[in-house]
């Protein structure tokens, strides 16, 4: 098969390369000329373990190339961004999807398969994309096989999970489902789950919403523990020893292209039926303010001036800052004119990010850990010797026990309250 993948981002690029490395002729399409040039030169433009090796393999085989313009193919896979709109319920912005479909239509021929991998609002495939194809003169299910096949992969493990995870094949007709199964059957070893397009759309959204709601419960528990003077992390550890309880971990908020975005697509589709989802979103969205208020309380207590932030990404060991709560926290701290702020992140390169840990913490009164990068799990006390006051606020609970360091986390936030006179090193 010849496969055109439209959008070479965190999902589109690994998908394209995976097809190429399983014997398919793949052309990747992207609007960013720099990204296209980098890929054709043999360098990935995003951070994902194992992807560089896979790209090299795909280029050497001659099965992959990147370019700016579309061309004819047997299969077209749309993997473009779907951000939130700036409306009441932050609904799904289909601008990029519709643009990709419009640009694809002139290249479509009877028998082609058109696959939407982009995360989309419920009924988008049937109510938005299908009419676009019909207006162009195609009969969906006969001339063109239209399918929604959402990705279900974890950044940092995309290569493995593309192959081994189950894959939902949501077609508008049974013929569309079969066409989608034939495409993904090239490399997917997990189950190919047959579904309607609408069910596939809602399933992807509710999977991420499930996690968002559970994280909201953990974050609310952190606030409860803070108010009552009870260690929330200890509570979670004990509660999870119950055979039917699996509480998530609290943190500085929820980010990324899925958990912080997808629930709104359901809310916008039926706001009157989603009070729980809306409340969970509100709780998780409140966490950056909650973190900053605790930082301000501690800094007032210790008369601190310099805060060093560890991590800008929404999860560990990636360079993805989309919807990252760390960015929200940094922006809030920048408004605090009494503080000097330095940001350190070994995975993200930017002029405003310090690349050297020891320089970043020099004369700092507080280090605030906002991302669970592996590098933070192996730090030593020596690396923090340059701090003026040795306080760490570890919102991700990843910093090891360090000699002479006072470590606060999401379990003992109450120790940080303004007016507390006792600073007790935490040795959990």
From TrEMBL:
Residues 308-401 form the UDP-glucose/GDP-mannose dehydrogenase C-terminal domain. It comes from Listeria booriae. One of its GO terms (biological process) is polysaccharide biosynthetic process. It comes from the Bacteria. It holds the Pfam family UDPG_MGDP_dh_C. Keywords: NAD, Oxidoreductase. This is UDP-N-acetyl-D-mannosamine dehydrogenase. Belongs to the UDP-glucose/GDP-mannose dehydrogenase family. GO terms for molecular function: NAD binding; oxidoreductase activity, acting on the CH-CH group of donors, NAD or NADP as acceptor; oxidoreductase activity, acting on the CH-OH group of donors, NAD or NADP as acceptor. InterPro entries: 6-PGluconate_DH-like_C_sf, NAD(P)-bd_dom_sf, UDP-Glc/GDP-Man, UDP-Glc/GDP-Man_DH_C, UDP-Glc/GDP-Man_DH_C_sf, UDP-Glc/GDP-Man_DH_dimer, UDP-Glc/GDP-Man_DH_N, UDP_ManNAc/GlcNAc_DH. The keyword Nuclease does not apply.
